[in-house]
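step 3/5: co-fold with S-adenosylmethionine
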Amino acid sequence: MTIDGTSSEGTSADREQLEFRRRLTAMFGESPLPPEHLMFNLGLYTRSSVLVKFLFMHDVYQRIRNLPGALIELGVWWGQNLVLLENLRAILEPFNKQRQILGFDTFSGYRTFTEKDAVSDVMADGTYSTPEGYREYLERLLEAHEGANAFGHRRNLHRLIEGDACETVPRYFAQHPETLVAMAFFDIGTYQPTIAALEAMRGSLMPGSVLVFDQLTWSGAPGEAIAFKEMFRDIDYAVEKSVLYPSKAIVTIR
Ligand SMILES: C[S@@+](CC[C@H](N)C(=O)[O-])C[C@H]1O[C@@H](n2cnc3c(N)ncnc32)[C@H](O)[C@@H]1O
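step 4/5: write C-alpha cells
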C-alpha cells in the first residue's frame, strides 16, 4: 500500500479525487476546532476509504467474539489497527480480561526479502519504517486508550514485539505456550515472516480462528499467497473475500 492506503499498482482515484483528498488533509492541518473538539469530531475528516477499515475490523472482531485467544497483527506500522482492536475490545467485550492484543513489527521497516517476493518502491528494505522510539510511543498510546476505556483499571492486555517476525513470532509462541489465536491479521506480505508466523501459530489455531490476509492475490506481494498455499495444504478452512474491503481475504479454520 502507499501512504494514503491505495494500491501501489496505482490508486483508482483520478487526479480530481486526489486533489480533494489533498484538500481534506490541508483542512485537517488548518482545522479551526480546538484539540479536545477535534478529537471528538475526527469523523469530519475521515474519508470513506479509512472508515471502511474500521467497519472491516468490526466485522472481523464479531466473528471471533465467542472464541478464546489473542488478537494478533503481523505488520503494525503506525498501529492504527491495534488501537481499533483495543477500542472494539472495550465496546464488544469489556469484561474479557484475557483478550490479549499482540503486534509484531521491526518498527524499522521492511526486511527479509527472498526470491519469492516482489521488490518495489513501496516494498523494499526499510520502507514503512517509523521514527526512533515509535514503539514506546505506541505503547503509551495503547495504554492511554486502555486506561480511558471502560474498566480501564484492568490494564496490560497489549504487547508490542519488536524485531524480525521470522524470529520473534516463533520465539513468542515458544515462550507463551498458553497462547491461542482467535484472530491474526497478516499484513507484512513477504514470504519468510509470513510462513514463519503461520508455522509458529499452527498449533494454536482452533475451529473458528480467523486469519486475515491483507493482499492475498496482489502481484505486488506474491510471498503472502505462496506462504498461504504451502501452509493450508492440509488444514481444513473456508476462505472468502471481504465484502467491505475486496482486497482482504478472510480465512476461517474449520
Ligand atoms: C504494510 S505495513 C503494515 C500496515 C498496517 N497493518 C496497517 O494496516 O496500517 C507492513 C509492516 O510490516 C513490517 N515488516 C516488514 N518486514 C518485517 C519483518 N521481517 N518482521 C516484522 N515486521 C516486518 C514493516 O515494518 C511495516 O510496518
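step 5/5: annotate
The domain at 48-253 is CATH 3.40.50.150 (Rossmann fold).
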